[in-house]
Specification:
Elements (H helix, E strand, L loop, with lengths): L5 H16 L7 H17 L4 H18 L7 H21 L2 H30 L10 E8 L13 H10 L3 E7 L9 E5 L2 E5 L1 E4 L3 H5 L5 E2 L14 E4 L1 H8 L9 E4 L2 E8 L12 E4 H7 L12 E6 L5 H14 L11 E7 H6 L3 H32 L1 H9 L4 H37 L14 H28 L2 H6 L2 H43 L10 E8 L6 H18 L6 E7 L14 E6 L4 H4 L5 E6 L3 H5 L3 E4 L13 E5 H7 L9 E5 L9 E7 L13 E5 L8 E6 L7 H11 L3 E8 H44 L1 H9 L4 H30 L15 H27 L3 H7 L1
Parallel strand pairs: 5-10, 7-9, 16-21, 18-20
Antiparallel strand pairs: 1-11, 1-12, 2-11, 3-4, 6-9, 7-10, 8-9, 13-22, 13-23, 14-22, 15-16, 15-19, 17-20, 18-21, 19-20
Helix pairs in contact: 1-3, 2-3, 2-4, 4-14, 5-12, 5-14, 5-15, 12-15, 12-17, 12-23, 14-15, 17-23, 17-25, 17-26, 23-25, 23-26, 24-27, 25-26
Length: 900
């Protein structure tokens, strides 16, 4: 039997005796206390004092018992009423404290919203199945070189080697070829009737889609038959290109697309979410493409990485060993060492996601920390609310409410809060996803697959339930387990119970501050890194530059005559453009800055010096290669440190020459004069280029990559032939001269046009888009973490002020000044903040190392960032302590002492 107060216990005896006299079953003490508790809560909600509410409930219950209204037969119906009353009472209780309720709901909304949005992103990019069959058994194989630290990846098998490897492999059941791609495939201008379309076209082996196990969304995919002699020239469009360039028209299958003078028939559309490799817009058979231009593919043609499917029972390790053994058996021309080659195996899913995986993992960790901060913050708020309701819990316990009943009621309140917070969090997640997708840079792999769907809603529901259990159960148990007599008498045991609860809240705040510092430090490092990148010297004048992609309309012809025509047009255009108003100079080149169109490396080579073997040359760093006309260095503003520019003497009959960058010279000929030295390009397959003599040393640039200086080789355009890109230095805003350029080109040759135009600032924005995006998202998460930690600290300090109100009143009565009272509160804030900062700094020093690959010119343990983060968090803690400290100075000593 429950221990009841004497008055209620006597009433229980009289009531049960009366029921026995009436022939009814005796009620238990628990049942009586339960009903009295319900009636007391109704009276409290009506505005009665606790004493009057209890007395009225006892009288009312006695009347009901005498009339038989609450007999045991009616208690089953009453149970449903009790649940409804619990919900209504919980809603009224929460509405009476709107600040607490709103703070808790917003806290949940931030934590749940950020977590659900991140889950939707990770699910769309990394977890959602790709439109292929049994993707776990798909592998991508490439070749590398063991020599030196700069292993080359992407120089792969030719057409004949690919066919031989497919025949010899035992671990792989199906093998196809795909050209090595780093970054994004550059677009090509094609024609749909008289209308030009931009397509990034990939030339694969015909069985490419069969190996993937992919079905067409419309029409059919390429097959092995499309490689056969006499096969019609066909291509398959991506779903994105179908909608972007052709408006999703239903008659796309069978439509002719002209590439140069050749027509290719669209035979199918790939399923949505597929653009491998390099955001391809279309795929065609490599063999058929070569035959359409009059060349039957031979064994030595083409370069391919391998995409293959494992046989049942085979492993990726077996495939790598088998591939490496095959590579090392190959005989290479020019004395190349095949024994140093190795196979590199990547899962298909990793090849698809590329370099977006590390940033998503970093964001996932940051959001997980934010969720922990949210749970600890909410638990602290609920625990503090429980301290403020000690009197209510005491009355209910005095009336006989069991511990389970109190826990159940508190959990109903938590469920209401959780449902409201989860609903708000779902809306926050939906909005955050919309904003993130809108602001995300183009080219992020599979970002088009991010959506707020049923899986995100299910995750939000599970997360809400988990958070309710995490933040509600423990505080509810703690509130229900405190000693009844200590509550009623406000004895030292009650004070001790409050002190324990406050220490628990303080510990939660320390955890919040520590985790907030870790997230804030990560965001600070990325922002500092981004600032360094944006203010770095590029080594060339990055202003008033315009880059044009010049393409030839269909019907221009092929072969040597077409090449001669192209050379004439590009060189003549470079000479005429300086006469256009607003243009200072122009030059032809191979790539645009920051490798926006040609992937991460563009044209790159290993090299060897005179006296070295090819294998020794393969130990050299990869060097970028570009062509340069006489005006190249002056147009781009790249200084020539020593030697000379290119000139008219560097024509085809003359010896091959080159200008090299300072970093190239220091690596190739350390401590020597590089002028007059000779070198040549080499590759792992044994291929070699012509010997070139160094005639000039140029300054280093970040032309290829904003984050790194790459050794560069410049060769004269007269000895190589021009590319399709024109760089123009202007005196006015770059894009404003575009009409004059188009008119000049039209007057020179009607068959050529400006396909794309890029101002230098636009190219820089593209290059910095990913680091800016990651820094912005992590900074937003950092702001949320800091805000939640500040709210938690504010709640603890406010509770401290309430608990120590009597002490503060006595101090003020004895002459304590407001400054001394404020110092008392601030001292508590400093203790909590210092503990959190020390733990957070320790964790940050260990955890921020995972950001190393995302940072530029900033150490993961950068002391400036960590100290600034700690100081900033300490300032925020001080601001959070200001209001409780101010409230403490307004305590009326007389009122407090009277209340005691």
């Amino acid at each position: 039997m429950l221990a009841l107060p004497a008055q209620l216990h006597a009433f229980w005896r009289r009531l049960t005796n009366r029921w026995r006299d009436d022939g009814q079953s005796a009620a238990t003490a628990e049942e009586i206390a339960f009903h009295v508790d319900m009636l007391t809560r109704d009276n409290l909600a009506a505005g009665m004092t606790p004493r009057d509410a209890r007395s009225a409930a006892i009288r009312r219950f006695g009347n009901r018992a005498r009339t038989g209204e609450d007999s045991r037969d009616a208690w089953g119906v009453r149970a449903l009423e009790i649940v409804v009353q619990d919900v209504r009472y919980a809603a009224r209780t929460l509405s009476h404290d709107p600040r607490f309720t709103l703070t808790l709901i917003l806290t949940l909304a931030v934590g749940i919203g950020a977590t659900v949005a991140t889950f939707a992103a990770v699910n769309g990019v990394l977890l959602r199945s790709l439109p292929v069959r049994d993707q776990s058994r798909l592998l991508v194989l490439a070749t590398g070189h063991r020599s030196g630290p700069h292993a080359s990846v992407g120089v792969a098998l030719n057409f004949g080697d690919l066919r031989d490897f497919a025949a010899q492999s035992r671990a792989l059941g199906a093998v196809a070829g795909v050209p090595p791609v780093v970054g994004t495939v550059p677009p090509f201008t094609a024609y749909d009737g008289d209308r030009s379309v931009s397509l990034a076209i990939m030339e694969v082996t015909g069985n490419f889609f069969q190996v993937l196990g992919m079905r067409a969304a419309r029409g059919r995919m390429l097959t092995a038959d499309d490689d056969a002699r006499g096969a019609a020239p066909v291509l398959v469009l991506s779903d994105i290109a179908w909608h972007r360039e052709f408006g999703g028209r239903p008659d796309i299958v069978g439509r002719a697309i002209h590439l140069g003078t050749k027509a290719f028939t669209v035979v199918g559309v790939a399923p949505p979410a597929f653009s491998y490799p390099g955001h391809s817009d279309a795929w065609m058979s490599f063999a058929t493409m070569m035959r359409s231009y009059g060349h039957d593919p031979g064994p030595g043609d083409g370069w391919f990485d391998v995409i293959a499917r494992l046989r049942p029972g085979a492993t990726a390790v077996q495939a790598r060993h088998e591939f490496t053994a095959f590579l090392q058996r190959l005989k290479l021309p020019n004395g190349g060492d095949s024994a140093s080659r190795r196979g590199i195996v990547t899962s298909y899913s990793e090849a698809i996601t590329g370099d977006i995986r590390p940033p998503l993992v970093i964001l996932s960790v940051a959001v997980a920390l934010l969720l922990v901060i949210t749970c600890t913050n909410v638990a602290g708020l609920v625990l503090g609310k429980g301290l403020a309701r000690t009197g209510e819990m005491a009355v209910r316990s005095a009336l006989g409410a069991s511990r389970g009943r109190i826990i159940a009621h508190l959990m109903i309140e938590n469920v209401l809060l959780g449902v409201a917070g989860g609903t708000a969090g779902t809306l926050v997640a939906w909005l955050a996803l919309r904003i993130t997708i809108a602001l995300a840079p183009s080219g992020l792999e599979r970002f088009d697959q991010i959506r707020f769907d049923g899986s995100a809603l299910a995750f939000a529901l599970l997360l809400t339930v988990g958070v309710i259990l995490a933040f509600g159960l423990v505080p509810a148990r703690a509130a229900a387990s405190a000693q009844l007599d200590a509550r009623l008498r406000r004895s030292s045991r009650a004070v001790g119970s409050r002190s324990v609860a406050l220490r628990a809240r303080g510990a939660l705040v320390v955890v919040q501050l520590a985790l907030a510092l870790v997230v804030l430090a990560g965001g600070g490092l990325l922002v500092r890194s981004l600032a360094r990148v944006q203010h770095v010297s590029f080594g060339f004048r990055a202003d008033h530059l315009l880059f044009l992609i010049i393409t030839e309309a269909r019907g221009g012809g092929e072969g040597s005559a077409a090449e001669a025509r192209h050379t004439m047009v590009m060189n003549e255009l470079a000479e005429r453009l300086p006469s256009v108003p607003g243009i200072m100079s122009a030059t032809v080149t191979w790539i645009v800055p920051f490798s926006v169109l040609e992937g991460a490396n563009g044209y790159t080579e290993h090299f060897d010096r005179e006296g070295q073997t090819i294998d020794e040359g393969m130990q050299s760093p990869i060097a970028g290669e570009d062509i340069a006309s006489d005006s190249y260095f002056t147009t781009l503003g790249i200084p020539i440190v020593r030697g000379r520019y290119f000139g008219a003497v560097d024509d085809p009959p003359s010896p091959e020459v080159a200008v090299v960058s300072q970093s190239f010279a220091s690596v190739a000929w350390p401590g020597q004069d590089p002028l007059g030295k000779r070198f040549r390009a080499v590759n792992p397959e044994g291929g070699v280029g012509a010997w070139r003599t160094v005639v000039g040393i140029a300054g280093d640039t970040r032309y290829r990559d904003v984050t790194a200086v790459q050794p560069m080789i410049y060769i004269p355009v007269r000895q190589s032939g021009p590319g399709a890109i024109m760089a123009v230095r202007t005196k006015v805003p770059p894009l404003s001269v575009l009409p004059g350029i188009r008119n000049t080109l039209a007057g020179l040759d009607q068959g050529y046009s400006v396909d794309h135009a890029y101002a230098i600032n636009d190219l820089l924005d593209v290059a910095l888009a990913r680091p800016r995006f990651l820094a912005a998202v992590l900074s937003a998460l950092s702001a949320c973490a800091v805000l939640l930690a500040a709210v938690g600290l504010f709640g603890v300090l406010a509770a401290v002020v309430r608990q120590r109100a009597h002490e503060i009143g006595v101090r003020m009565a004895l002459g304590a000044t407001p400054a001394a009272v404020r110092a008392l509160v601030f001292r508590q804030a400093v203790v909590l903040a210092s503990a959190g900062l020390m733990i957070g700094l320790t964790v940050a020093l260990l955890s921020t190392r995972v950001l190393r690959a995302q940072l530029f010119d900033v150490s993961p343990t950068d002391p400036v960032t960590l100290v600034a983060t700690a100081v900033g968090l300490l300032v925020i803690a001080g601001l959070a302590a200001y209001l409780p400290a101010r409230r403490a100075t307004r305590i009326d000593p007389i009122s407090v002492l009277r209340a005691e």
